[in-house]
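REVIEWER CHECKLIST
Item 1: Sequence provided? yes
Item 2: Single chain? yes
Item 3: Sequence as submitted:
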Amino acid sequence: MMKYILLLVLLLALAACGGQSPTPAPPPTEPPPTATSTPLSAGVPTPEPEEAEPTAEPAEATPETMEEMETAVTNAVTVSDQNLTEEFTVTIDSVTADVPGWMVIHAQADGRPGPVLGYAPVAAGENQNVTVTVDPAGATETLYAMLHIDAGTVGEYEFPGDDVPAMDADGNMVTPPFAVLGGLPVAALLNLAESDELGAYLADAAGMTLYTFAHDTPGVSNCYDACALAWPPLVVAAGEDVTAVAELPGELATTERTDGTIQVTYDGWPLYYWVNDATPGDTTGHNFRNVWAVARPTSKVLLGGNEELGHFLTGPEGLTLYRFNPDEPGISNCYDECAFYWPPLLLEEGESLTGGAGVVGELGATERDDGTVQVTYGGMPLYYWILDENPGDATGQAVDDVWFVVPPYTVAVGNTPELGDFLVAHNGMTLYLFGVDGENESACYDECATNWPPLLLEPGELPVAGFDVTGALGITERTDGTLQVTYNGYPLYFWIHDEAPGDTTGQGVNDVWFVVEP
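Item 4: Structure as written out by the authors:
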C-alpha cells in the first residue's frame, strides 16, 4: 500500500513541474550548462554555470615547485687542455652559473688550486668560450678553472673576500683542472712600472723596483760586501737569456761580478734591488744618499766623469754636458756660431725629462728663441762641445774661462719672499745652521739628530756647490763615523718638519736654528 502512495506523490510532483515556464536558454556566447546543473524550485533564480579553466595555463606555483625551479641550473665548468696564446689568455669552453659570478684561473700549488692568475665575469645561466687573461709569470703546467660567485660589490672581484668559490649540486667546488700545452711562456725579466711621482721605471717580472748606482761605471759594478747586502744585484744563471717587454727601448746585457755571478745591465748600468722595498711598486730607495735612483727606461741626463774632473753630467749617449757662465737661470745666451760649437741639449716633443742615478738636483727646460726646448740643471741651460768625441772626453772644460762641466751639486741657493736667498740641498729642501755647533764640529746627536738630520756624504764623495753658492763647502766627521757637509766650517742640517722645497719652518726654532745665507 505504501508503495502506491509514494508513486502517487511522485506523479503529482512531475505534474507540478510541467506547469512552470521553461528556464530561458543562455545567450550563445555563454557556455552551455554543465551536466550536473539542476533547476531549483519555482521562484529561485538559476545560478550562472562555472567556466572551465583553460588547460594551457600553468599550475599555481607552490613552495615545492619553486625549489625545483631554483635548483634547475647546476653550476658547471667545461675546459680543455690548451696552449697559452701570445696575449697570455686561456679559453673556458662553457660555464654554467646559477648566479652572476667570475671565471677565475688558479695556478697549481701543492697539487691544489693556488694563486689567482686572472679572472673574467660570467653571467647567470650558460656562458660559452669565456676568455681569461692570465699572469704568465705565475703560470704552472696545470691550471684550475674555478667558478666564483659575485656575492660582494656587484661587478667587483673580491677574493679573498665575499666572492667565494661556487658549489655544484653535490656541494663540491666547481674547479676542473686543465693542462697548459706547448710549454710555459717565458716571462720577461725586465718590465716597465710607473708612478705619478717618478713616471716610468724598470721593474722585474714580479714588479719589484730596480735601481742603478752612481758609483758604478757602464759594465762594472762597484757594489759589494755590505753594499750588496743592502742592494742585492739582479743576477741570472750563466748563459740565461735576458728578456724584456717590447716597450723597453734600451740595451740589455750582463756583466760578471768579482764573485763570478752574472749581473744584468741596462744600457750598460748594473741593476739592483733595495732591501727595504717590501712590495711591488715600492720605490723607497730612490735618491738614497744621492747615489741610488730607480732605473729609467730612458734618461735624458746621466752621471759620467773621468779621473781628472770626477763626476759630471752627460747626455744620453754619455757625452759631457757643460754650462755657460754668461747664461742666466732659464735663459740661454748661446746662439748662431756659439750654438754651432756648443750644441744645446734639446728635449724633443713627447720625451720625458728624467735623470739617472746620481743626477741629484733639479732638471728643467727652457724655450729657446728658435722655439726648441733646452734642458736645464738648477735652472742653467746645458750644452755639448763639438770637439768631444767619446764618453769621458771633457775638452771643453774651462774654454775661454766661461765653459765648465756640470757636477751634480750638493748645495744650491733657494729663495722665499720672506727670507730672501738661503742654502738648499740637491733636493730643494732648506738647510740650517745650529748655533751651538763649533767650527767643523757638530753638537747635534741622538734625539737632536732625529729632528735635525745632518746633510751627509758617502765616503769618497766631495761636496759640490751649485750656482751662486759663494761660500766654502767642506766635510766634518761625526762621532758615528758619518761625513757631514759644512759651509764656511759650520755643519749643515735639515729640519724634520719641513715637508716640501721652500718650507722654512725651522727658522728661529729655540733661537738657535737658522737658515744659511749663501
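Item 5: Key structural point noted by reviewer: Confidence is low (pLDDT under 50) at residues 1-59.
Item 6: Recommendation: ____
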